[in-house]
Amino acid sequence: MRKKIGYWATHEYHRRAVERDIDEFVGFDLLKDISTRMPEENIKRNQSLFATAFLTGGRIEEVLELLASNFEVSTDEVMVRDMRLLKRYEKTGSWTEYVDERPKNKLARLFEWDEDRQKWFRKRFETEILTVKRKPFRFATSEPFADLLLDWLDNASGYLFPGRRGPLSYSMAYRVITAAGIYPHWLRGQRASCLISEYGWTMEQMMEWMGWEELSTARHYARFGPTKLVAGRRTA
What we know:
- This protein is α+β, with helices and mostly antiparallel strands.
- It folds into two domains: 17-84 and 137-222, Intergrase catalytic core (hpI Integrase, Chain A); 89-129, no CATH class.
- It has helices at 28-35, 43-56, 60-64, 146-153, 170-178, 184-197, 203-210, 215-222, and strands at residues 71-73, 77-80, 84-85, 89-99, 112-114, 119-129, 132-133, 137-140.
- Helix 2 (43-56) crosses helix 4 and helix 2 crosses helix 6.
- 23% of the residues are buried.
């Protein structure tokens, strides 16, 4: 077992299913209220981190990798280029794992019974991390929270949220976001739900903007939007 260091050495980590962080869009007023609960120390940075995570819809690890140079600001919109997409892997090989007893946890569904060997087995894959970048995407400068990001961007160079050696650490960002009573991935879910319920995007539009490859991912979020999805901004 890998030794815990830093923040995780003294705090319990609970892996959360993505579905737990998907929720109906709570509205901009509540999001603004949540943003005021950021820790007072480095409050401008903390609120800018909150704003950037929401506006880009990125995983918090992807947000922390952003550089000031990734942003192109015009009068009406902000263009984001070359934002990294994490959790992209290529299968380079496979092997079969055999066990005498079927696991009793969530892994159980992955195992099948081999009559010849009289063992339980599952297929395992060797993978390597791919360096993939999100297609350029944009959001309006008039959107709620855009001013928080733009004000921070005015004085930024290098990493948008710098730490001691490189970008701000994940553990610090996690601590900042959870101090407001939410989880980082919840903001990603809120952005996706916002695009559908507030702006009336189709699932296909949201998939392209978020950099998703699977329609099933978009459906998790789309179910919290209007029953009828139409292109463009919702008028009703």
